[in-house]
Amino acid sequence: MSRVNHQDLGQLNGPIVLFGGPYSNLQALDALFDRVRALGLGPDRMICTGDVVAYCADAHAVSDRMQESDIAVVAGNCEKQLAAGAMDCGCGFEDGSACDLLSVGWYGYASAQITQAQRDWMGQVPDILSFHHAGKRYAVIHGGHHDIACFIWPVSPEAVFDAEWQAVERSIGPVDGIIAGHCGVAFERQTARGMWINAGVIGMPPNDGAPQTRFAVLDAGQVSFHRLDYDHTAAARAMVQAGLTQGYHKALETGHWPSEDVLPPELRRPALASG
Questions:
Q1: This model's pTM is above 0.85
Q2: Domain named Calcineurin-like phosphoesterase: which ranges (predicted)?
Q3: Could you give the CA distance from residue 101 to residue 206 in angstroms, rounded to a whole number?
Q4: Long-range pairs for 194-201 at CB < 8 Å and ≥24 separation?
Q5: Other CB atoms closer than 10 Å to residue 222's CB: what's the count?
Q6: What is the CATH superfamily name and number for domain 12-272?
Q7: CA-to-CA distance for 176 and 213, rounded, in angstroms?
Q8: Whole-angstrom distance, CA of residue 35 vs CA of residue 228
Q9: How far from chain centre, in Å, is Cα 241?
């Protein structure tokens, strides 16, 4: 097995809240904490698929909240890049794409906000998590295991899921399910090897024309997806005040990304699918 930073969370019982991409969106993170408290759960029953910091205005505050909460977090590409002092987000965007061009603004802002102590924390979060739940063993990764910034979509070929599953099992042994993030779209897909769950992200809507974001709950071996209402107007206003007006501030309110070219054609709005 290859050597990776792997953390085994052991046996987890009862409902587990799965979420990704806080994306520096403090209002969304606070709303999620409120929802989790309403469910009677605490941070020990929450797992984050990474990218704590990204598009929105409160990189420092969100990093602090996540670090202080002691929520289990797997490293996203943003954590890796910020910890290394890299000059870009390492998201795997195609050169010249909207995502690639727009990332320059938000990544630079986030990098300037966070402290060295926060970078150090990001540098030590694990590459992969595992846990047992309802008789099954799960792995938690960010994008892919062989490539942390790999975009895996609900419409990706079966071979993509199979290759990632094999990479995970080469690192940590057999698993019955994989939980991932990165792509920003929540989904569940039954593969030949087991269930692949993308928990979605709380910091940005899934390009569906509504401002609500997504999280998931794993309970008794079944996953359910939930909409997260939060003060998206305040989050967008904070971005404008910070000068983060490359388009993602509007996405918080309209529910449509300024960067649909990252999506497979099947997942874009019809007018953009042939672009």
A1: yes
A2: 27-219
A3: 20
A4: 194/165, 195/223, 196/152, 196/161, 196/165, 197/18, 197/223, 198/20, 198/152, 198/154, 199/18, 199/19, 199/20, 199/49, 200/19, 200/20, 200/21, 200/225, 201/19, 201/20, 201/21, 201/22, 201/23, 201/51
A5: 10
A6: Metallo-dependent phosphatases (3.60.21.10)
A7: 27
A8: 8
A9: 25
